[in-house]
């Protein structure tokens, strides 16, 4: 998934100084942006309220959109460095191609995990003949300094572990939860879980108190610790929680994201994660000059060019505004 903002704001993130020492419940304001040719998404992280939840640095939620008479998602080849993309579908199909030769069609309940590392390019498209609805989330995880220059890789896991108990079905995308561990490769202590709540569910799930967490209402709506969470909105939960109470009057799907607060300071601009403005400029130049990232074969169309670099130096902004 690409950040297609033509004037992306450079951000220096990370550090523990603005991580709450205990539980909070803050609703995060999102904004609607256009992705590719026809897909509108709700960008929930980074946002005015927060830029990181553990190593999770980017959350786009889209749909459900009726794409019967449209091409659906059409995101041309674009680059990434220093991060992992975690693609999660609730409805629809996506065709992933990348510059290391991956060519995969994935659907709901399947994990598409791309590790950009040193550098990779990829495209994402709804197939020509596709399901009626498109609905899902695209997530980025920052790679720590010791792993950020790793060789690029792509993983497709068609089945994932989980459990069902007391009106909730958990599917573990990343990390471990409730005794189940995802096969997805993680480079920092984190967790990502799809929680499907039955109508009338009133459940309490266990959390790691050393993690900070956020939770997204991906489908339907629910109540989180007594606070309503509407469809397409996200709440930041802070640290120190051992349990989380969830209620739903209707069937709902929540996406729980968490991890140890990310200590390193990073710079995130466009589709790149680095450690300085100079690194980011080098990445942009490499993409423009067709270096470092390779080429995506099989995509018919023009790749996405890097937007102009900002005229001013990067300004440290911390974890929150």
From TrEMBL:
The keyword Iron applies. Keywords: Iron, Metal-binding. It holds the Pfam family Pirin_C. One of its GO terms (molecular function) is metal ion binding. The keyword Iron applies. InterPro entries: Pirin, Pirin_C_dom, Pirin_N_dom, RmlC-like_jellyroll, RmlC_Cupin_sf. Residues 40-141 form the Pirin N-terminal domain. PANTHER family: PIRIN, PIRIN-RELATED. This is Pirin. It comes from Petropleomorpha daqingensis.
């Amino acid at each position: 998934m690409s950040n297609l903002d033509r004037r992306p704001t450079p951000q220096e993130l990370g550090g523990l100084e603005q991580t709450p020492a205990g539980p909070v419940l803050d609703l995060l304001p999102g904004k609607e942006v256009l992705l590719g040719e026809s897909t509108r998404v709700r960008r929930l992280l980074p946002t005015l309220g927060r830029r990181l939840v553990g190593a999770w640095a980017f959350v786009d939620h889209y749909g459900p959109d009726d794409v019967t008479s449209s091409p659906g998602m059409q995101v041309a080849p674009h680059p990434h460095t220093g991060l992992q993309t975690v693609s999660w579908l609730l409805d629809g199909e996506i065709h992933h191609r990348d510059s290391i030769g991956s060519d995969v069609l994935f659907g709901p309940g399947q994990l598409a995990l791309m590790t950009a590392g040193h550098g990779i390019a990829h495209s994402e498209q709804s197939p020509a003949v596709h399901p009626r609805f498109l609905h899902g989330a695209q997530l980025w995880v920052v790679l720590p300094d010791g792993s950020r220059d790793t060789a690029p890789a792509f993983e497709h896991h068609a089945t994932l572990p989980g459990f069902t108990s007391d009106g909730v079905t958990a599917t573990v995308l990343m990390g471990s939860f409730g005794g189940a561990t995802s096969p997805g490769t993680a480079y920092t202590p984190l967790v990502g879980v799809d929680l499907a709540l039955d109508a009338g569910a009133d459940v309490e799930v266990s959390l790691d108190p050393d993690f900070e967490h956020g939770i997204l209402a991906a489908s339907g709506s629910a109540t989180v610790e007594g606070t309503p969470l509407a469809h397409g909105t996200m709440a930041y939960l802070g640290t120190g929680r051992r349990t989380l109470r969830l209620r739903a009057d209707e069937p709902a799907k929540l996406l729980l994201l968490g991890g140890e607060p990310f200590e390193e300071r990073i710079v995130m601009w466009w589709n790149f994660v680095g450690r300085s403005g100079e690194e980011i400029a080098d990445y942009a130049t490499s993409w423009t000059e067709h270096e470092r990232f390779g080429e995506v074969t099989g995509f018919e169309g023009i790749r996405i060019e890097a937007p102009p670099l900002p005229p001013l130096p990067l300004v440290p902004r911390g974890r929150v505004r």
